[in-house]
């Protein structure tokens, strides 16, 4: 059995969307228990909603929640009684094997670093997720947890990204740095300095600079960037995916002949949407923490929240800390 803790407060759509997603998730995964953190004003409603599954759900009432407007710098003074801190403590104390939050990313990083700590050699965690590409999933980090980073921190992200990929997939990962060009003279000082270090410490993994239009070619296993560029690239990709999906449906439905043949094209469109839908790739892991912490979009609907829960459980099931630490140590001390 697995137990995961869920912070359902702080999202744009409120906790009831998360309640629905949690109930459907429990139905599909009978081997999972949930700890659901809510504020006091939602505690009774949550107890009632999960009454039929009370043997597998523990409601955790808390004094406060963290909003999207709260400043991360205030978290260690004001956020320790929040739902977000509560689920992190459940993980820290071993009652949950991983956590999911829909709340403020900056606050989650600050509280997670404080309560869980980071892995050796990591100044801070990076937000990472697997993006679908033409050939194989691409692990991209950072996606928004650290807007500005040094060359050394980019190298740290590369070490944890490569170590995670190697442990998950066994094969030696191909790793690149996101840049505005492939030439060695392109990019900021931090990016060029990081490239020099990576060529030295992981020559078997590092394959050079990659540009934004390379993201979906499927040539890489890991792509490293700072959180500013990474978040823009991710959000632009998600917006494009949604627009393309709308265009496909519009084109097919606005022609009577194609509508009549919907039984032929509708399954293909559904398969494409399953591969590229942002809702199916809405979970991101804070890599570099001493634990399994997943963040999902603040605007997550029920579908996106359920996929984030599934993503969290995949990471819990495959988290091999001894092997991860061994590979991370090997790369850091090369």
UniProtKB/TrEMBL annotation:
Complex and partners: Homodimer. Probably interacts with PlsY.
EC number(s) from the headed UniProt entry: 2.3.1.274
Pfam families (alphabetical): FA_synthesis
Main location, first listed in the record: cytoplasm
Lineage: superkingdom: Bacteria
Signal peptide: none
Protein name: Phosphate acyltransferase
HAMAP family for the chain: PlsX
Cell compartment(s), UniProt: Cytoplasm
A Gene Ontology BP annotation from the UniProt entry: fatty acid biosynthetic process
Organism: Thalassolituus pacificus
InterPro entries xref list: FA_synthesis (IPR003664), Phospholipid_synth_PlsX-like (IPR012281)
Free-text function comment from the UniProt entry: Catalyzes the reversible formation of acyl-phosphate (acyl-PO(4)) from acyl-[acyl-carrier-protein] (acyl-ACP). This enzyme utilizes acyl-ACP as fatty acyl donor, but not acyl-CoA.
GO cellular component: cytoplasm
Catalytic activity: a fatty acyl-[ACP] + phosphate = an acyl phosphate + holo-[ACP]
An example molecular function term from Gene Ontology annotations: phosphate:acyl-[acyl carrier protein] acyltransferase activity
Pathway: Lipid metabolism; phospholipid metabolism
PANTHER family: FATTY ACID/PHOSPHOLIPID SYNTHESIS PROTEIN PLSX, PHOSPHATE ACYLTRANSFERASE
Keywords, ordered alphabetically: Acyltransferase, Cytoplasm, Lipid biosynthesis, Lipid metabolism, Phospholipid biosynthesis, Phospholipid metabolism, Transferase
Family under the similarity heading: Belongs to the PlsX family.
């Amino acid at each position: 059995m697995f137990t995961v803790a869920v912070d359902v407060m702080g999202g744009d759509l409120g906790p009831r969307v998360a309640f629905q997603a949690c109930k459907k998730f429990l139905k599909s995964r009978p081997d999972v228990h949930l700890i659901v953190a809510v504020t006091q004003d939602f505690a009774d409603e949550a107890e009632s909603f999960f009454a039929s599954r009370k043997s597998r759900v523990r409601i955790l009432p808390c004094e406060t929640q963290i909003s999207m407007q709260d400043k991360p710098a205030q978290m260690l003074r004001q956020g320790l009684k929040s739902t977000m801190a509560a689920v992190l403590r459940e993980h820290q104390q071993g009652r949950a094997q991983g956590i999911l939050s829909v709340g403020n990313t900056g606050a989650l990083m600050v509280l997670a670093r404080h309560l869980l700590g980071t892995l050796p050699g990591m100044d801070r965690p990076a937000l990472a997720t697997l993006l679908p590409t033409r050939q194989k999933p691409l692990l991209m980090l950072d996606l928004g947890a650290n807007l500005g980073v040094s060359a050394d921190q980019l190298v740290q992200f590369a070490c944890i990204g490569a170590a995670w990929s190697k442990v998950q997939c066994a094969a030696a990962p191909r790793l690149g740095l996101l840049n505005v060009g492939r030439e060695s003279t392109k990019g900021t000082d931090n990016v060029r300095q990081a490239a020099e270090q990576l060529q030295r410490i992981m020559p078997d993994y590092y394959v050079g600079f990659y540009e934004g239009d390379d993201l979906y070619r499927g040539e890489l296993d890991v792509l490293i960037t700072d959180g500013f560029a990474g978040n823009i690239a991710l959000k632009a990709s998600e917006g494009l995916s949604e627009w393309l999906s709308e265009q496909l449906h519009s084109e097919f439905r606005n022609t009577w002949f194609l509508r009549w043949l919907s039984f032929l094209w509708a399954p293909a469109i559904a398969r494409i949407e399953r591969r590229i839908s942002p809702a199916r790739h809405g979970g991101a892991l804070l890599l570099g923490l001493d634990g399994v912490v997943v963040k999902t979009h603040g605007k997550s609907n029920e579908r996106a929240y359920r996929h984030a829960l599934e993503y969290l459980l995949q990471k819990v099931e495959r988290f091999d800390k001894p092997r991860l630490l061994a590979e991370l140590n090997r790369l850091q001390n090369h």
